[in-house]
């Protein structure tokens, strides 16, 4: 029995520790970074691209190679017959001192490396937005469940009151049935809310590899307002500078334009290289003649070579035209993405403005429905209102409160989307948001 108790205690302790560490939104993001294979793949790609720069730059420097051979030959001719044991050692040099195409190739891999770095940063930002959105989805689900549980408790109280009044003849069977029906309805809603919480928890578990059961709530005094200095134009200007997807497209255009230079250099510019070699050959013949002499032969050479492309059946001009068309395509793709980004910013800004107004209106609605519920309760106590009206007023208030919380959380999610599209969803912003998440009362 003890063998089973000890592992259970350890598992409970680990689960408890995990939940404690996962409460902070910043901690959840760090867990997601550690767990996400896509981010690790982007980091590996970036590292590979950086090494590719070194590999390609190596072609600009002198290349030395060493070779050696040990051989045996047998000659059986009408005039002579002999054997020969020989060995050869050779050191060869190749140094391209002028090669525009090679220089452009280095530029190409440097552009690819810088683009890979931005892609890695973009993957981090995408992961941050996804993780934070899933985090707030859990907050929304938990808030809905909390409101629904309060409604279930209140409805159960009304049902119990209706039963007691029915037993003493102060309420009709219709009132009792209405109360029972309302209670059954909110119980079904509660089950659905619990299912939503469970799904949101499993989504975060998939993202972080950790069980997250309890997270803080958004502080009641979280400011629901927009920065008065923030305008659509300033947001678009910032996105043009810092949006990661747009930066990647800028590198794509730069790479495509550089490819035009590569194709022109490959087909229209000469290549100049210095070549040289040092070699030693030792022969050991079985016979000795004037033409077959044992011993070592040392050879050295150096040359300046020039290669000039002249004609390739029209392929040179076609390659340049092809590269030009690809550059034009990359430019238009960037323009299209910029239009989509600008439209997204305008939409998000409008959504935030609408959310501010909705939250303010929803607060007023809660006050109105609170007053309506109090009036309905008073009317029910004196017999001017019936139980159905009381239950409706109660349900309306709880629904208004739940909608209010959803509006608040959705406002934060919209702000996070706006930070991401303007390239400003950094760890500092996540830590700043973390300060507004407080433990449940």
Automatic annotation (TrEMBL):
Pfam families: OEP
Location of the protein in the cell: Cell outer membrane
A single GO molecular function term of this UniProt record: efflux transmembrane transporter activity
Entry-linked InterPro entries: OMP_efflux (IPR003423), T1SS_OMP_TolC (IPR010130), TolC-like (IPR051906)
Protein's UniProt name: Outer membrane protein
SUPFAM superfamilies: Outer membrane efflux proteins (OEP) (SSF56954)
Keywords: Cell outer membrane, Membrane, Signal, Transmembrane, Transmembrane beta strand, Transport
Predominant subcellular localization, coarse grouping: membrane
Residue spans crossing the bilayer: none
Signal peptide: 1-22
Keyword Transport among record annotations: yes
Gene3D superfamilies named among the record's database cross-references: Outer membrane efflux proteins (OEP) (1.20.1600.10)
Gene Ontology CC annotations of this record: cell outer membrane; efflux pump complex
Similarity comment: Belongs to the outer membrane factor (OMF) (TC 1.B.17) family.
Top-level lineage group: Bacteria
